[in-house]
Amino acid sequence: MAPPTPEPAVVSYGTRASTTRVVRRGPHLFHWHRTPGVTTVKPAGPPPPPVLRHLTGQPAENAVRFAVPRVAGPPSRDPARPRQEPPDVVYELPDSVSIGWHMLAGAAVPRQYTDVVSRVGRAVRTLHQGPAPLAPHRPVPWLGGLCDWLSRRPDALSERLVRRLGAGRCALLARWAEEASAVADTVVLGTLSPGVIVVDARDRTAHVLVGAEAGHGAPALDVGAFAEALSTSVDVALAGAHHDPEQLDYPSLWQAFDSGYGPGRPGEAAVRRAALLRRVHRLRAMSGHIGDNAFLQVQIDRLPALVEQQGGPLIPAPRDGAGAWER
Fold this sequence. Notes:
Helices cover 42% and strands 16% of the residues. The chain has helices at residues 49-56, 99-104, 114-129, 141-152, 156-165, 167-181, 219-239, 251-261, 268-289, 294-308; strands at residues 11-14, 18-26, 29-36, 64-67, 70-71, 89-93, 186-188, 197-199, 206-209, 215-217, 317-319, 322-324.
């Protein structure tokens, strides 16, 4: 008997790191099927069980929900995929794409989502301030992997960074990564960007995708990751077709997130360094699943200045009454 034909996807995209197929299940219900690839430097699958239980127990306050995936059936029988490889997962979401996709495609502008991102900021603060479940101490996976990578320098990209940054700056990065990984007193999402926020058009509820990158760490990791992701969105938009001023107004999302997070936001120095570490992680991932390209080279060339300024240019700075990234 022939295997069933896969249902047609309304959206499908991927790299060597992972593939996403989105299947419509109803007017406002989409299943996002994610399959891990062979070059990814980040974990795939659901969060660790203690963190998963903690996230699913969070109140759906401020119309924000943490969306955790379910494992998609039995392990793959594809002989090309190692047995230890994480399983495919499925997210159930109210839209076929994220707000990041809508903005970069020119279908929306950042200011249309300031209310959503402000509520996400409040929900993330609530998560950070809650008691963390007991679990073995380990940094969030991306940071642990970065610490190891900076220490061992196992590949061509790491050696390329040494040549571009110099030994002193590389040592600073390694030290900051180790210091950040030593703090594991709360649950953090591990990654936060417009690309993991999906909005229900009916009531503006935000669904924040959470996966195996969640774990224990310092709140600055999530805040810095969001700032770095917005900065990268500006760079991607500038290189694309949709870069009118209102389409580049990602600083408005940073201001909304910062306002929503409110009092108790992690200190500026910690956030700046977290954003810088996240940028280095992004370049490592990009090199692995896309390869060398002009965009990667530009980002590498900016790293010496970013290290010298401890990540400061990745955080929007007040300018003429509005937030702006230094360029």
